[in-house]
Amino acid sequence: MTEQEQPQPGLAGCYRHPDRETGIRCTRCDRPVCPSCMISASVGYQCPDCVRGSSQETRATRPRTLAGGTVVSDTRLITKILIAVNAVVFVTVLTVGDSMVRDLGLIGYDVDPTAYTWIGVADGEWYRLLTSAFLHQQIWHIGFNMLGLWFLGPPLEAALGRARFLALYLISALAGSTLTYLLAAQNQLTLGASGAVFGLFGATAVLMRRMRYDMRPIAVLLAINLVFTFTWANIAWQAHIGGLVVGAVIAYAMVHAPREKRLPVQYGVSATVLLLLVVACVVRTLHLLGG
């Protein structure tokens, strides 16, 4: 830099471009900034480093839900997506027929009457544990389940956050299917989102207890549904109980985890539950195969 290019006494050089004289300083760090670097703020100007740091601080302090999820404006998005998926599958079942139910419904171990081959979870078709939770054949069946999802889903989605709510729903569905696989007859065909919805019942009870709300409404509603579970014919009570218990366990871990250890506790409990479900399915499979 030549003598003519040296900043004149009394005017500082920009902290990023020392050869550029400026009388402007960052309102946060007081460093001199030239017109190319200064960024307009609510009061005065700021340097690029301070603006970048402010954005990072804003992201770090973004409001969080009770369980640590991101606060969003639409707290029904995942609920609506799940209802839409169930509805699309239901229409597809009506269009395709019973073959889709036979291919994707929960069956422990049975012989396909059309191909005379073994089918079911024990034959390696583990996907049935989850796909069966999106299958319905009767309008009243999907109607009751989707009504429960619509009323129970949004408050949980708002409290947990979208990702945690989806994890709760899917793990509850798997738990209901797993208990059905363990206790029901090996050739019994089971389908429906009841396990997942009962998981939402359990989670709602935990959330209301955590928020110190009046527990009587959810207790009465749950009691009515349990009466139907054990009195109505052709209802897989195993799916209801499995989903209910696991939904409560997952929700408890999510809303009671200490803030400084929130993610390890939530991930740890969810992973442990999934591992136990896998172990239970392996044991059942070995039993059905005579191992």
Automatic annotation (TrEMBL):
Subcellular compartments: Membrane
Residues covered by the Peptidase S54 rhomboid domain: 124-255
Record's keyword terms, sorted: Hydrolase, Membrane, Protease, Transmembrane, Transmembrane helix
Transmembrane segments annotated in the record for this chain: 77-96, 134-153, 165-183, 189-208, 215-233, 239-255, 267-289
GO biological process terms held by the UniProt record: proteolysis
Signal peptide: none
Keyword Membrane part of the UniProt annotation: yes
GO molecular function, one term: peptidase activity
InterPro entries recorded: Peptidase_S54_rhomboid_dom, Rhomboid-like_sf, Rhomboid_protease_S54
Membrane topology recorded in Swiss-Prot or TrEMBL: Multi-pass membrane protein
Family: Belongs to the peptidase S54 family.
PANTHER family, A to Z: PRESENILIN-ASSOCIATED RHOMBOID-LIKE PROTEIN, MITOCHONDRIAL (PTHR43731:SF14), RHOMBOID PROTEASE (PTHR43731)
Protein name as catalogued: Rhomboid family intramembrane serine protease
Species per Swiss-Prot/TrEMBL record: Streptomyces sodiiphilus
